[in-house]
Design goal:
With 351 residues, the chain is α/β, with parallel strands linked by helices. The chain has one domain: Rossmann fold (3-Layer(aba) Sandwich), CATH 3.40.50.970. The strands form 2 sheets. It has a 9-stranded mixed sheet, sandwiched between helices. Strand 10, helix 8 and strand 11 form a beta-alpha-beta unit. The chain is globular.
Length: 351
Amino acid sequence: MTYLAKPKIHHPSLAKNALGYTRRDYEGAISTLCAGCGHDSISAAIIQSLYELDVPPHRVAKLSGIGCSSKTPTYFLGNSHGFNSVHGRMPSVLTGAALANRDLVYLGVSGDGDSASIGLGQFAHVMRRGVNMVYIVENNGVYGLTKGQFSATADKGSKSKRGAVNSDEPIDLVTLAMALGATFVARSFSGDKEQLVPLIKAAVAHHGAAFIDVLSPCVAFNNHPGSTKSYDYVREHNEAVNFLDFISPREEITTEYAPGEGRTVVLHDGGTVRLHKVGRHYDPSDRAAAVAYLETHRAAGEIVTGLIYLHPDSTDMHDALDTIGTPLNALGDAELVPGSRALAGVNAALR
C-alpha cells in the first residue's frame, strides 16, 4: 500500500510572511482530485492569497457542502477550523458559526451543483443577509462525482460527454448574487492565477458578502468538443476515463491577457472558451451597469472575468442585527442571563 503524505519538516530557507509562516503552513493534504482539475488551481490560489495577506491559519473557518469542489478544503489550510456539511447546506452552517464568532475569517467553498441546484435557496439567503464571508463557487457545469450530468450552470445547447444536449437555460450565479444583495461580486478562471489571487485577497478584506464564481474545467466529464466549460472552450480528451480507474495527467491551462481584452482559451479537448477581462476604466460600483455589461458580453459569447460589482458602503449581518461586538461564544452568564427584570422589559416593549 502506498501512502501519499507531505513531509512535516520545512526547509529552513523557505520564505516567510510577516507572521513567520511559510507557504507550506497554509497547505493541506495531498489532493486526490483528477490530475489537471481546475479545482486544485483554485486551492493553490487560496493558499497564496492567505499567505500573502498574513492571515493566521487558525483564524480561518473553512466550510463546504458535497461534491468535488467541497472536497477541496482538505487540500488547503490544514491548520484552520473546518466543517464539511451536507449537500447544499454550507451557507446555513456558516451563518450559525459567524453569528457565534464574528472574529474568524469565513471561507465557504462550493460547487455549481451544491450552490445552484440543491443549495440554491441557501445561496440566496446567505447573500441577502450579508453574511461576512468569502463564497467561492468552483464552477465546471457538471456533477463530477456522479459521472458528468449537467448542472444548473451548464449553458443551453452545450453537449455532455455522452453527446446529450442541454435544453435548459443556465443559472448565472454572478447576476443572481448581485440581485440578492451581495456587495462584492467577481468571476475568474481557475487558470488565471494573476487575476484570481488578487480577487480572493480583496474578497477576504471586504466587509460583507463576497462572492467569486470561478470557471473550473472538469478534465474527466466536461472537457470535450461541445462543452462550454472545458479547458480551452476553458487537451486532448481521453475516452478511456469512463472505463479505467486512471486519468492521464494533463498540464494546467493558464492564460495572461490585459484588462479590457478578450482571449480565446483552447481546452484539453480542442474546444475553446472566450474570456473577457473588464477594463481599467470599468466602474464596478454601478450594479445596473454591471448587469448590462454581463448581458452584452454574454450575447457576444464572452465570459466576463474580474471584479464585477462592489458596493461602496457595504454592511454585514452583524450590522443589520446590531449584535454586540464581543463574539457570542465569548459572552459569560452575566451577559447571556440578564435576569427577570431585563426579560420583563423586553416583554413590555413588545406589548
